Amino acid sequence: MPVIGLIKEGKVPNDNRVALTPKQCKWITTEFPNWEVIVESSANRCYADNEYTRQGIKVVTDISPADILLGIKEVPKEQLIPSKTYLFFSHTKKAQSYNQALFHAMMDKDITLIDYECLEHEDGQRLIGFGFFAGIVGAHNGIMAFGNRTKQFHLGRVKDVKDYLELIHTYFGLKLPPIKVVVTGSGRVAHGILEIMNLMDVQQLEPDEFISRKYTYPVYTHLKGGDLYRHKESNIYERNDFHEHPENYTCLFNNYLPHVNILMNGIYWEQGIPPLFTHADLNNEFALTTIADITDDAHGSVPCNLGDAPSEDPIYGADMQTFEKTAPYLATSIDIMAVGNLPNELPRDASRFFGEQLIKYVIPDLIGKGNEIISRATMLEKGKLNPRYNYLAEYAKH
User: Do 1 and 34 touch, CB atoms closer than 8 A?
Assistant: First the structure.
């Protein structure tokens, strides 16, 4: 009987999310009775061991009998089991140097790696992810930081509520000052940000309305790729060309710098894509004091993202003159919210949402013979680089 195993998270600091909830595990064993699901015992997981056993799912200390292993964050090299199939976020798709040794270890151990980030529709749209809840928590933290800075209102921490429903109730009595917020991006992260903007009763404006005048109530505008970038010669935006040749485009975000108080950044970024603004742009007049960089690329689309902050202390300052890290809420600094595991503050909701996507798009074909979507997401096949990822050939060299 083939076996799916849920591994305990080994990366430090611990992540308490999980790929499948207890009820989702039971659903799989009911729908696919020829398969077994086992769960590696964990004291940190948001669903306790006994919640799985109550659903008839075996909890074990040795996960090695499983054929397919599901995790969330990167698996420490020493915890990898040879010749297994793993699904997790490896953070190697962009040849991230900090995970190169992990990639080599998976190759040495003949591991098949199916990366969640690489599970895509034919047009490149991501199939599954935690982006929506990253947007939820990141947007909350951004508004919270502005309140802490100005002392005009107070928001507590997301991690202190039981679940998303309770979080929504904390917004009912919240009255925000007339702030101006820019939301960037068009994917799941942006959808989560927009959810919070609407729950907090921040009114949406078209981009031209946003910059045209001041308002007596809180407002936001939503900027997608076509609002942010223009070709240097043709002065138009064409999505495919932009992603193939981002160096030919210029960013228009500095038009908003004099008007925006809070930036909620949910836009995709990779090397070569112009940043939203430059250090030099901050020598001109600007209103920006708070940045929630939810997609969280250090020195990426937000150049004053100086790296991750811990979830326990998510806000730091970036000096406007030097871009050096400071304490938050200083008059000479911009406040930065940059956290790598934002959904961890709503772990049960985020895990349930993630597992539903896995069941909808991945599990049936993973349990069956596989399909093109899974094939495209397979970065390593028994330790060998999938031809689709030959652009990582140098990265894969020992």
Answer: yes
Task: Give residue 372's pLDDT band: very low, low, confident or very high (50, 70, 90).
Answer: confident
Inter-CA distances, 130 with 3, 96, 147, 357, Å? 25, 20, 26, 10
Q: Coil, strand, or helix at residue 40?
A: strand
- Tell me the two tokens of residue 154: 């107070």
Give the pair of three-digit tokens for residue 163: 């679940």
The pLDDT score that the predictor gives to residue 367 is 73
DSSP 308: P
What top-level class would CATH report for the domain 3-128+347-396?
A: alpha beta
Q: Positive or negative, the Cα torsion across 152, 139, 172, 352?
A: negative
Q: CA angle 213-215-216, nearest 5°?
A: 155
| Sequence ranges of the chain with CATH classification 3.40.50.720 | 3-128+347-396, 131-345
Distance of alpha carbon 337 from alpha carbon 141, whole angstroms: 7
CA distances 374 to 20, 121, 134, 158, 171, Å, are 18, 10, 24, 34, 40
Q: What are phi and psi of 248, to 5 degrees?
A: -85, 5
Is residue 74 within 8 Å of residue 14, measured between CB atoms? no
Compute the C-alpha angle 19/21/27, nearest 5°.
110
131-345, which class in CATH? alpha beta
CA distance 32 to 25: 11
Angle 23-24-28 (CA atoms, 0-180°, nearest 5)? 115
- Reference 130, options 364, 356, 361, 302; nearest CA is 356
pLDDT (tens digit, 9 = 90+) per residue, 256-313? 999 999 999 999 888 899 999 998 888 888 999 999 999 999 999 999 999 999 999 9
Tell me how far apart the alpha carbons of residues 205 and 222 are, in angstroms, rounded to a whole number.
8
Two tokens, residue 247:
């160096």
Instruction: Identify whether the C-beta of residue 47 lies closer than 8 Å to the C-beta of residue 18.
Output: yes
The pLDDT tens digits for 180-213 are 999 999 999 999 999 999 999 999 999 999 999 9
Q: Write out pLDDT tens, residues 313-324.
A: 999 999 998 889
